[in-house]
Design goal:
Order of helices and strands: HEHEHEHEHEHEHEHEHEHEHEHEHEHHH
Strand content: 5-15%
Largest sheet: 7 strands, parallel
Shape: globular
Helix content: 40-55%
Distance between the termini: 26 Å
CATH architecture of the largest domain: 3-Layer(aba) Sandwich
Radius of gyration: 21 Å
Structural class: alpha/beta
CATH topology of the largest domain: Rossmann fold
Length: 401
């Protein structure tokens, strides 16, 4: 594997198994007397999971002063991830309110970050993915002419309202960012087609860094009365806005039919805290045998659940990336996905929310060992566990120009 960084700013593959610095860069860093400030902004659990290895890399460098900033878009779920990775926030906007709207999240984040950025004055900020926190932070930085590094850049469905508001958020961030950290070659191509002005770097996805770190600890997921050895456990998550209402009812109809048809299966479904999805799920599945509704799992518990389950039924984006690394097929409960690489690689299948399609697709994996094995052993296209090291190396080079 080559040690030299390619001249072309667009990465066409994973060039670094381990990150090495040239002697000139090391000398410059050692001679710096005042650390360069960088900001890392997050507000939701997925952001915390995917930015944790980046923060760890940044914190190991004395030449950089890292400010970890929480918006508080989510509260308890983020706190649990922070505890897992021993991360402490330098600033916390605490914006979370009952029944908060996208407008409320955006306005509160912009106003709070304006004050923090004026105080910290970072040379670069990092945002992750496509949350309203990420978009608001990028916009707040743009207003103060602070460069933005976008982790997990370039995902697209080409449907502005699906997923909503994520597709618009990530497109808007792309027009602001100076550094685009693309997880796959397809993401690189999407950014090139978008005509973005920032540098595009193919780094892999940081969620694989986090997953591999936690999986090495061999975590368990203990759920009261669930005997993992007795059942083929189907791990399910449902929460996306585009699945609220009738799509959610259809999904739950499919789940009930699968349980009726396959008595050797059990359904583990960690409930989202939003009552819009939580209450219908409890009403449809709460009294069923072999259904285990839990509170949101800690990330280590989630990794343990993925490792132990038979397959996943989910509308989550992150699980499409994580489950293949642990050899588990993913059935995606959405009409579109911004991660078509998983479908192309054969690790995931897009099945939508029609009850009969959900039943047929799940039954195929439960009844056909050959098809199950093909999905379980397909190669994960999302990275090699070194994305955060690449990202920090690129950021250092950018700050030292």
């Amino acid at each position: 594997m080559a040690d030299a960084q390619p001249k072309n700013p667009v990465y066409t593959g994973f060039f670094y198994v381990r990150v090495r610095f040239s002697s000139s860069i090391v000398a410059i860093l050692r001679n710096m007397t005042t650390p360069v400030s960088v900001g890392v902004i997050l507000g939701t659990r997925p952001e915390a999971i995917k930015l944790a290895p980046v923060v760890k890399q940044l914190n190991s460098l004395t030449q950089l002063k890292t400010h970890l900033i929480l918006t508080g878009q989510h509260r308890e779920m983020v706190d649990r991830v922070m505890q897992l990775f021993d991360l402490k926030a330098d600033y916390d906007l605490g914006i979370m309110k009952p029944k908060q709207t996208l407008t409320g999240i955006t306005c509160a984040s912009l106003q709070g970050l304006e004050k923090i950025f004026a105080t910290v004055r970072p040379g670069l900020i990092f945002v992750q993915g496509d949350t309203t926190t990420a978009f608001s932070a990028a916009l707040a930085a743009f207003y103060q002419q602070i460069p933005v590094g976008h982790v997990e850049a370039g995902l697209r469905t080409d449907d502005l309202y699906n997923p909503y508001p994520e597709e618009a958020n990530r497109r808007l961030i792309s027009q602001i960012a100076q550094l685009h950290f693309a997880p796959t070659t397809l993401a690189v191509e999407n950014l090139q087609k978008s005509g973005v002005t920032g540098e595009i770097h193919h780094t892999g996805n940081t969620v694989i860094d986090t997953l591999m770190t936690v999986a090495d600890r061999q975590p368990e997921c203990r759920v009261a009365n669930l005997d993992w050895s007795k059942y083929r456990v189907l791990l399910a998550t449902v929460h996306r806005r585009e699945n609220w209402g009738k799509p959610l009812k259809d999904i739950l109809t499919g789940f009930n039919a699968i349980l009726d048809r396959f008595p050797d299966t059990a359904l583990l479904l960690p409930l989202h805290r939003n009552p819009t999805v939580r209450e219908p799920i409890k009403a449809a599945l709460g009294d069923r045998p072999r259904v285990f509704l839990t509170e949101p799992l800690d990330y280590s518990e989630l990794v343990g659940a993925i490792s132990s389950c038979h397959l996943l039924l989910t509308d989550s984006g992150g699980l499409q990336e994580e489950a293949p690394s642990l050899g588990k097929p993913v059935l995606v409960l959405r009409e579109t996905t911004e991660r078509p690489e998983a479908v192309q690689a054969g690790t995931a299948k897009l099945i939508g929310t029609d009850p009969q399609t959900i039943i047929d697709s799940t039954a195929e994996l439960l009844e056909n060992p050959k098809i199950y094995e093909q999905m379980a052993t397909a190669i994960n296209p999302f990275g090699d566990g070194q994305a955060s090291a690449r990202i920090v190396k690129i950021a250092q080079d950018y700050l030292l120009r």
